Amino acid sequence: MLVRMVSTAPADEVQVVVAHSERATLRVGDVFLKVDPDQDRIDAEVAAMALAPVPTARILWRKPPVLALAALPGAPLGRLGTPSTASAAAWCAAGATLRELHTAPVPARPGGAGRTVDVLTAELDTECAWLVAHAVLPAAVVTRNRRVAEAALRPWPAAFTHGDLQIAHVFTHGERVTGILDWSEAGRGDALHDLATLTLGQEDRLPDLLAGYGSPVDLAVIRAWWSLRSLLAVRWLLDHGFDPASPGCELDVLHARM
């Protein structure tokens, strides 16, 4: 499995943006090609992009299993594992854009941020047991983060959520958001999940994001989602060739709770 993140690509070269056994994204010049054999997932992404009241990438064409998207202007807010160099104004703009998304009419489809509390609790119990059994993390770190994560396991008001709002998915230019990528997990869910995912490993940028968001949030729930998302992600990342132990990534996030 090959993973390679790029910001530009010569027109005569194929660049791998991200790839694993489920899907891949390639870049050729100013065109991104998403290759995904799960057409239900692509259908959901296209539908969410049509509904979202925020900038998204322009769809150029679609021929299963490929979806072609135009490159977004600007640059991503950052990359997981590397401190964001985007300005406070850019983060503030991202917050305002997310507020617009979260207050839009709620889709009928549950998204990645919309799993029920019972489902999340069961997944969390399974993953915590696996992390300890396979000595991926010390039991004390898992126990502490499991306790922190409990604050996210509560009823939440349904919102239109992106569902997988990684920092590399939000593009800005100057003081405006030019687009948000990868909507396959979008749907009804917990708005605080989006805020937490965007600031995972970028905790110092949360005040700028919330300044633009303009609505009070429960910081304990944001911290809970940092722990919960990281605990749930580690095994998947290892199984798909990613390294959650890279500086600033999921294992560092979990250790930071200690």
From TrEMBL:
<dbReference type="Pfam" id="PF01636">
    <property type="entry name" value="APH"/>
</dbReference>
<feature type="domain" description="Aminoglycoside phosphotransferase">
    <location>
        <begin position="27"/>
        <end position="214"/>
    </location>
</feature>
<dbReference type="InterPro" id="IPR011009">
    <property type="entry name" value="Kinase-like_dom_sf"/>
</dbReference>
<dbReference type="InterPro" id="IPR051678">
    <property type="entry name" value="AGP_Transferase"/>
</dbReference>
<protein>
    <submittedName>
        <fullName>Aminoglycoside phosphotransferase</fullName>
    </submittedName>
</protein>
<dbReference type="InterPro" id="IPR002575">
    <property type="entry name" value="Aminoglycoside_PTrfase"/>
</dbReference>
